[in-house]
Known about the structure:
The structure holds two protein chains of two kinds.
Chain A: H1 12-27, E1 34-39, E2 60-65, E3 71-73, E4 76-78, H2 80-92, E5 103-108, E6 112-117, E7 120-125, H3 131-157, H4 166-175, E8 180-182
Parallel strand pairs in A: 2-7, 7-8
Antiparallel strand pairs in A: 2-3, 3-4, 5-6
Chain B: H1 20-34, E1 50-51, E2 55-56, E3 63-69, H2 76-79, E4 84-87, E5 90-92, H3 96-107, E6 117-122, H4 128-140, E7 145-149, E8 151-152
Parallel strand pairs in B: 1-8, 3-6, 6-7
Antiparallel strand pairs in B: 3-4, 4-5
Amino acid sequence: MPRPVPEINASSMADIAFLLxxxxxxxxxxxxxxxxxxxxxxxxxxNVKQDDVEVKxxxxxxxxxxxxxxxxxxxxxxxxxxxxxxxxxxxxxxxNDPNLADQNEKEIPMIGMYKVxxxxxxxxxxxxxxxxxxxxxxxxxxxxxxxxxxDLSRSMFGKSYDKLSKDEQEAxxxxxxSRISEAEPKNVGGK
Amino acid sequence: xxxFQRKGKGGMPAISTASLPxxxxxxxxxxxxxxxLRETSLMVKSSLPEATEVAKLxxxxxxxxxxxxxPIKSMxxxxxxxxxxxxxxxxxxxxxxxxxxxxxxxxxxxxxxPLLTTSLKVDEETRMGIVTDIKQExxxxxxxxxxxxxxxxxxx
Lengths: 191, 156
């Protein structure tokens, strides 16, 4: 007579299932779309005569990318790794260099008087520039502004920018406005 | 001395498996909620560039997508390898972007319309020419909020 096979205890199945469930809950990253948010400048109205907004030369930080993905920053070739620091230096102008961005003292809520930079970063690219390079440059420029905001946030509020309240973030945004302009496309060179 | 007595047949009572369905349902619901179904099937290759400073795209309902890139392998016999624009489920030309934006606008409620964000999912090997053209079209359609889709990478 064969011995009856003992039934396997299944009460721990639930525990195992829960364990798995929790594990997956913690590790699954929902497929969130991420990207660099930008605002395009509005199309100029053809009926309104466009008087070119005079921006002083010292306040413009031109970044050109040519079709072989080389950078030309303010007339000088530059490596991508230098771009962020140069941008920061341009915007903050710590030594009051007359060639770098002008500053304008303004009253900002929660911060008080602050020298707001007048600098504008103007990004221009060729039609043949690779998108990858374009994004790298965009990323460096955004990183420069983000780091400046982070620095100010630490010195003003003693907290990281991410941890600030909405009002505080807004104040920082006013103190260091991110001015990256994507210039009107120019057709230089062929396709 | 026989303290532990063996009972005749297997000592354990059968355990109820009545809660198993609950567990299975829970798993099912979890995956149902977390899975986002891709509404459009991609016809262009779009491996996104990397960036460190990315921000999350909030509210999916306010976002419309423009895919740009070379057509995928199975489409290349028909459409070649030059980067093309995909809107919804088909290849489109630049002129269609304005219609696309206005139809996306119409589908949204009045109050949400100014918040329309256009996410550009552009393959990293694309040249800027086509992207610039798209940007100009978007400006003409006054869809000014854009988002260059990128993969998040950690800072080095």
